[in-house]
Amino acid sequence: MANTSPAIEDYLKTIHAHTEWQPEPITPSVLATRLAVAPSSVTEMVKKLAAQGLVTHQPYGAIRLTDAGLSRALGVVRRHRLVETWLVSDMGYGWDAVHDEAEVLEHAISDRLLEAIDAHLGRPARDPHGDPIPQADGSIVSVPTVLLSEAPAGHAGTVVRISDRDPQLLRRLAACGIRPGVLVTLSGDTLDGPDGTAVELDADGREAIWLTT
Amino acid sequence: MANTSPAIEDYLKTIHAHTEWQPEPITPSVLATRLAVAPSSVTEMVKKLAAQGLVTHQPYGAIRLTDAGLSRALGVVRRHRLVETWLVSDMGYGWDAVHDEAEVLEHAISDRLLEAIDAHLGRPARDPHGDPIPQADGSIVSVPTVLLSEAPAGHAGTVVRISDRDPQLLRRLAACGIRPGVLVTLSGDTLDGPDGTAVELDADGREAIWLTT
DNA sequence: GCTCGGATTTAGGGATACCGAAATACCCGC
DNA sequence: GCGGGTATTTCGGTATCCCTAAATCCGAGC
């Protein structure tokens, strides 16, 4: 039953991504939107995942990963984030440009190559966006963070994580020097960086950046 | 018409590999054996390739790449060999262990990443087995060679290329220090390397090694 | 409590790429 | 020149993953 495929991995990864930073389980329609497939495709695939014991799902109910499903999902996330880190460290990719390439490679890399890349990079704990890289045993090194949209006015902290969902936002932030590790201060809708740099962020932007508490 | 898929790429690559070192066009049954698929699958896929103008094929006739098909095949070969070279140079793979990994990655790498790897490696002309790496423009740097089974008794030369088809043979040769670039002498069925090393080769082994003339 | 609209599932198909079995074409040896 | 065996193709089917259109469910608001 070690059945897998790029499609299955993408479903598990997307289900996991939804709960990584908030607790509500994902619904079929959200899953369909994120994967850019029709809702009926989700119904079908979720049925298959449930049959393999990777998710729990009652008709018309929410979708939740089982322990087995979570473990598979973390494996995919690990691949994705190590590939991203490798592309930036070794191949000269900008950290705003690695997502699509990693999306494909995460399904193509053997365990052996994954291990070689991990060793080569010195077993990093975070990828270029600040996302934690699950370790081979499934454990995750975490840091306490606040989402920008939930931070109090005037909050100052180090950028820990920036969601890689919107490449355009990533490029805008990269241009202003806002990246993981940089110290910033929130004033209203504007984020002040070092050397007087500042970016104004809309609601989506404030949902995409996490600072240290 | 930029239709492609891993399956199509594998067919084109395999058709090309058959004619790379000898002129006879490949037959459907040989193609089926090399790809480990049923003959009927080959008929079907070849029909599709012919419809896309990538091969010429009359029913019951031989299969030949068109110019368009050759160009696509060379693209796949380039990917494969650059990936092999990268795995050996950067990731600590043995040159006898890279084939299977490259077989998968060759279908997953974007043009942009391919270019980055090529630049990173210093635009190599040959992969770890001595196979020429087609350049981005499709040109190939070639060296005059003799196949061991066609070399006269006592012939001495530098190992230029070793077929990567049989991993066990590759491991045996690696253990004896026989690899591309090494000076050897053929005596009967035995190949003498430097420092008194020697390997006895069967008919298949003598079909897998090329020396300088 | 009922209804209506959005979310979800069911039903019926399509594309890709594979298979085994059965039919057919080809060619070698006599 | 004719078998007969092998190579090749045809035919009907399978598995995966996707789609659209048509039910059906569910819960929010009246």
UniProtKB/TrEMBL annotation, chains A, B:
Family matches, as SUPFAM superfamilies: C-terminal domain of transcriptional repressors, Iron-dependent repressor protein, dimerization domain, Winged helix' DNA-binding domain
Chief localisation class: cytoplasm
Compartments where found: Cytoplasm
Residues annotated as domain HTH dtxR-type: 1-66
Coiled coil: none
A GO MF term: transition metal ion binding
Cited InterPro entries: DtxR_MntR_Metal-Reg, Fe-transptr_FeoA-like, Fe_dep_repressor, Fe_dep_repressor_sf, FeoA_core_dom, HTH_DTXR, Iron_dep_repressor, Transcriptional_repressor_C
Subunit note: Homodimer.
Stated name of the protein: Manganese transport regulator
Lineage of source species: Bacteria, Bacillati, Actinomycetota, Actinomycetes, Micrococcales
